[in-house]
Records
---
Amino acid sequence: MFSIDSNQFYSLLGEYTGARDEFSKKIEIINTNISKFMSEVDRFLDDNPEIKNLLNEEENKNVDMDELSDINVIIQNEVISEQHTTDQELSSSVELVPVGEVEEIIDSEIDQEREKKLRDLYRKIVKITHPDKTLDQILHELYIQATGYYNEKDLLSLFYLCYKLGISFSVDSVEVEELNERTSDFRSKNKFLDNNLTLVWLYSDKKERVILDYILSQIRGKRMNRMFR
């Protein structure tokens, strides 16, 4: 029979939510500052016409500009796409591959068990946090969070809210494995985002160097694209 120390599991939950929230915050910062970064790139080009002319020359050499999206947008879209793909994979990580009728039955039962647990945890949280049950604004915020997690089928985040509210719950080995995998996944994404040029520029004390590196990468990209056309 599977068992895990409650303090150990709560610690894992804290690591998961920390990595998840860090990822969300970085995406928010990128979305907020990417236009500022690109405005500074334009300003730099205006102040350095020789570099701007070099970039324009590359643009006029029959390069398909549709294939040369902004680097920051590419990075951001890849991360968001990767998260969506990973979330789809993880949402089915408790399912057995349907090889035959028996597997399909088991698969359906596991889905039903997960749905039941999601529903039960959400109901327990609502009983404590719903505006009809309390005037506490902090609890109201947790209610909103819980509703979002429930709609997203985010069982792990509902676990964490239950922990914060002192609501008891049980976990199995599959859920612990999922928790570890998703924590690792968010950590990898956070490390990847650390190289996003908008973030690098925002926190750098050598902002013009970052801008120049971006422009040079655009020029190299156009040349490479032309080579393989």
---
Amino acid sequence: MGDWTGKDLLAHMAWWHDHSLRVIEGLRAGRQPYDATDPANSTDAFNERTHREHMDDPPELTRRTFNDSFSRLLTALEPVTNEELFADDRWPWLDGEALVETILWDSSRHYEEHRDQLEPLSR
């Protein structure tokens, strides 16, 4: 990630917003969102694939995609109940973690993780 541009980082963050969306929709539909044991579904694999697939996207598209992904995430959260969001035993696929943890790591905690890379973009 050291050589990623601001645009690359926004594409990365948009993908993780959509990851939460897929997890929410899959769990609420009673299915496993994806096979977490498949090496192609590791965090590093997701990040590398997303970078490769969006490397040539124009900046305007990447900004729009980021904004749209966050809007989709907020919309997906609207029908989620407190029990679905906060109970750490609600979703076996999450291995004892509350759904809110996935959402936080895919959004606000993720922003904090990349703060040093994101701050220059706000200037």
---
Amino acid sequence: MPGDQGGPARATAPRPYDAVVARTGSGGGVIAVLACAALMTGGCAASHPRAGAPASSQPHSAATPGQSLQVAAGRYLAIAIAGNRRLEIDFDRLQGRDKGHLRAAAGDLRDAAATERLFDRRLLAIALPPATERIARLLYQVNQARASLTAAAARSVSLPQLRSYQRRLAAANGPVEEAVRVIRSQLGLPPPSTS
């Protein structure tokens, strides 16, 4: 991924995607919506082909549903770990050495927004069970909104203006974190770490 070179190597294991931004707080509001969506889509949707997809686009592998779920979970973890590593660097710099430097902080935020968007594109490229795909699309939407807010913060012309985004950015994390928890649960993965 462009921009991955540079930055200090981490001695600790990377945390799941969005664990880094979870440290800044979270807002609620969509937990019930996502939980209901997960319950509504979880029924028998996983046993049916995707609606509107031609038969030729359906998977033709001999993999069992359990194996397909493991593959999807592995692919999800791969993009989550890569995204988290980049976000960790950006937010560590933003909260550390770049905190009092507008141009550097704006660069950190631009990189974070680009990382969020890259994660979203990679997420939509993963073949997920239909119920999980629906939640992934919700995650895409809320993460795109967060990336847009992050990019807007990066266009700040002063440090006070940049800091004025802090509460809104923290609130934007809540819907993303909840969607991540639902996806991880549906993929049989443990919940994300927030430490």
